[in-house]
Every structure is written in structure tokens, then in C-alpha cells.
Amino acid sequence: MIEEKIRQWCAATTVEEAGERVVVVPDRDVAEVCRRLHDDAEEPMDFMRDLVAADGDGRLSVFYQLESTRTGGRVTLRTDTDGREDPFLPSVCRIWKTAEIKEREAYDFFGIRFTGHPDMRRLYLREDWAGYPLRKDYDMDSNPLNMENEENADVTEEYDLRADGTIERRENVVFRPDDFIVNIGPQHPSTHGVLRMRTSLDGEMVKKIDPILGYIHRGIEKMNESLTYPQTLALTDRLDYLSAHQSRHALCMCIEQAAGIEVSERAQYIRTIMDELQRIDSHLLFYSCLAMDMGALTPFFYGFREREMILDIFEDTTGGRLIQNYNVIGGVQADLHPDFVRKTKEFIVHLRSIIHEYHDIFTKSVIARTRLKGVGLLSREDAISLGCTGGTGRASGWANDVRKHHPYAMYGKVDFKEITYTHGDAFDRYMVRMDEIMESCRIIEQLIDNVPEGEFRVKTKPILKLPEGVFTASVEASRGEFGVFLISRGDKTPYRLHYRSTGLPLVHAMDTVCRGGKIADLIAIGGTMDFVIPDIDR
Q1: pLDDT at 186
Q2: DSSP string for residues in 228-295
Q3: pTM of the prediction?
Q4: Residue 17 is part of a domain; what is its CATH number?
Q5: How far apart are CA 535 and CA 472, in angstroms?
Q6: Number of structural domains, the chain?
Q7: Per-residue pLDDT tens for 82-108?
Q8: How would you classify the pairing of strands 88-90 and 113-115?
């Protein structure tokens, strides 16, 4: 139905390879097609899940992964640039706000400029970086180590497409000379990693936030292109380390679907239980760090007390605590430890008996409630447009849980409540995650005594070659939708392997939710957004 509409609007074609159906739209029509899809009366594609650039066959391409929050329907578009030299495409950032930061990523790594985009600066790399490192013809020796301090640009470029087809370039101002700018980070405990937010202040009020990323960028997506599929798994653990099980689960699912590998029911049960333990682990650390960011030290130790029990359970079975390499293609690395079921059930009983202490000491505190309630408001419409999935979006009334709306593993067979709140403030973002701890306990309780017998891992070839095509998978990670976008050319290594960062939209949203608030609010808001920096930088 969606594809038929697109073909009525323009000369679109559908690529029908293995995996994802991709609708190819001419570059001159892509912005108008996107606008019509967004505004469609029956199935509005109001959520841009991701925007992914790729290099291939003498052209550069951009894929748009779109979803309707009304129906759950999805579509993937592709448009191609006209050649590789000085490529331009029309921006869609006035349709979906999240496209603003994701088009900057496409420019940073592939050199694609977007007409109508207000800020065509690098996103992760230095402003003086030479070349575009995710292009296939990139010279790896073109950027020797540069120890000079980087000067951040206060002026950016915008490009407009004239009626005669030529490009007009003009300058836009990021910060004016009379703006008072302070740096929050990168060495700051409340940025939860090496993130820098250039913050313009009027007294103690926030006027604008410009996030500076890339301090821990490791080129993971580039590294994937030279690794076999089993080797790529190791790098997912180094993204969001509090979603290590879930991130690896998504990549394994994508590869298994592409290769036609059927995973045993036992492995599916184990993966689901591990994902939920990981979610509790993450939310406990969220509670601990938010409380500490706001000056409450005792709750910090409460969260670590129970989190340590989860890490002990993980270590028995997986051998790891922070870094988890348990999921593998075809199942899991090893069977459950003999004490796993007992310890997990004991932990849930303990957590249920102790969770009131968390609320007694922090949730009910007049200081915490005053600093969180009515602070950092994010509307449902902005949450969707900015792509703020997970607990951040659900606190604004947007039901976006991948486990509910696109079930995978055992999530379609368990009963749990999707936690949503309506105010969209820092307090609701906090409460969503605290309530989700209890829902994760419910999910585990339904599975833990019913793990079926069978093999925990099916045999797979040490070297996999996937069929040609585009393959995708997504899971509900601890901070929202974590997606895998894979382009295969039939080789033993991926042609392009991209990860949808759960945290990139959250950092991008900081400017929206902090403007007009106090600089002290920025710290509390950042804590409730719950971003993890290695996941953003990749």
C-alpha cells in the first residue's frame, strides 16, 4: 500500500533482493515524498527510525527508515546522489527533527551535503579533518596524528538549491561573539562519559546547547567492513555497555535472519531473560547516577548493592560483568550455570522486598521531586520528531516499546505492561525506568521456570556468507530502540554495517528540553535522559 502511493507520487522502483524491501526514490523527489509520507492521513510516517548513508557503485546513497506511530507500519526509502564529487541531497530535517543530527553524521563520514540543512558542520571528527572515512576510496593515511587544539566553529554553512539548479552557500551563526559560553564536559562526571556541551547562558539560564561529540569515537562501523560476521559481534559490547546483551542480540538476529539460521527455543528463552536482567542492571545504575548527580550519595550505594548481585549472576554463566560476549550467531556461548535459576529467583524476591527503600530515600524526597517535577519538558510530538525512543519517549506519552510493537525472541509470549507517563518531565522519565524494573522482574518470572530443554546453540559455519541485500533488526535496549542496518554483497564481511545509536537522539534533544531552564536543571535533565557516550560515538 505504501509503496503504491510512493509510485503514484514519483518514478520510484522497488529493490527486491533478500531481506528488506527498499523503495528507490529519485533525489529530486525524495523530500516531497518524505513530506507526503509524514503527513499521510491513513498511515503517517511520523517517526524516522534512522537515516543511514552508504557508498557503492560510483554513487553515494542515503536510506530512510520510517515508521508510523499510529499503525506500526514501516518502509525503507533509498535515494542516490548524482555522482561522488561534491554530492548534494535535499534535507528532510524540517520534516523530522532527528534528521538534523543524522544528516550531519552522513556529511561527516561520506561528504554528502544537504540543501536546506541549517548546520553543515562535522559531527564527530575535527573541523580540519581531510576526507570522509566511510567512503570506500578513503585514504587511511590522509590524516596523521594532530596534537593541535581544535578550534570549534561558531559559524556554519547552509546550502540552498536555486531554481536554476545551482547551489547557493550562506553562513549561519552558531554562537555570536557576545554569547557567554561555558563548557559542560568533556571531563565532567554528570555528562556520563566524554561528552562536551557548549552551553550559552544568560545569567544562570540556558539559552542554547551545542553538543560536541566524538571524543571516544573508535570507527567501529569502519572496522566492521574488514571483519567476518562472527568477528563483528565483539564490537557491540563496546557500544552501550549497559545494553551489551541487547545490542549483541540485535546483531545476532540480523545475521541469523539473513543466513536463514533458526535459533532454538531454549536459546530464545535465555536471551530474553538475559536482556531483562541487563535492563534491570542499567536502570539500577541510572537510579544511582541520577541521585549522585543531584547530590544524594546514599541512593548511589543502594543501586550498586543490588546491581552487584546481577553482575554476579552474569559472571557465573557468561564469564563477564560489564562486557558481555554471551550471544553468538545461532544461540548463546554456553549453557546456563547450574545456580543461575536459583540465584535469579532469589534476586527478584530480594529486589521486590527492598525496592521501597529506593523510593523512600529518593523518590519521596521533597528535594528530588522539586528538582525533577516540571523540569525538562519534552512533548510527545517533539519526542517522536527527535526520535527519542525508550523511557524518554514513553515518559512523554509515546508508546514505542519494540518488545510490544515488533515482538522478537519470547516477548510475544509473555505478559507485561508498557510503562508510559504523560507529563514528559524529568520526574516522569525517572519513574518510567523505576517502574520498568518491576516489569522486567515480571517477564523473568514468567520465563525462568519454563526454560525448555534443548540445545543452547545450533551449529554454524565458522565463515558465513550472507546473500546480497539489505537486512535490518531492532531490539528494545535499555535506552530505547537499538537497530542494526546491514548491507551484504554476498561476501564473508559486511559491505556496510551501521548501528542505530539509542543515545544520539537523546543528546540532540538536550537543546530542546534545557532551553529556558537553569544550568543546575541541565545536570538533572541529562541524568534522566540516560545517554551512554560510547553508544553515541561508536
Answers
A1: 83
A2: -HHHHHHHHTTSSTTSHHHHHHHHHHHHHHHHTPPPPHHHHHHHHHHHHHHHHHHHHHHHHHHHHHTT
A3: 0.93
A4: 3.30.460.80
A5: 18
A6: 2
A7: 888 889 999 999 999 999 999 999 999
A8: parallel
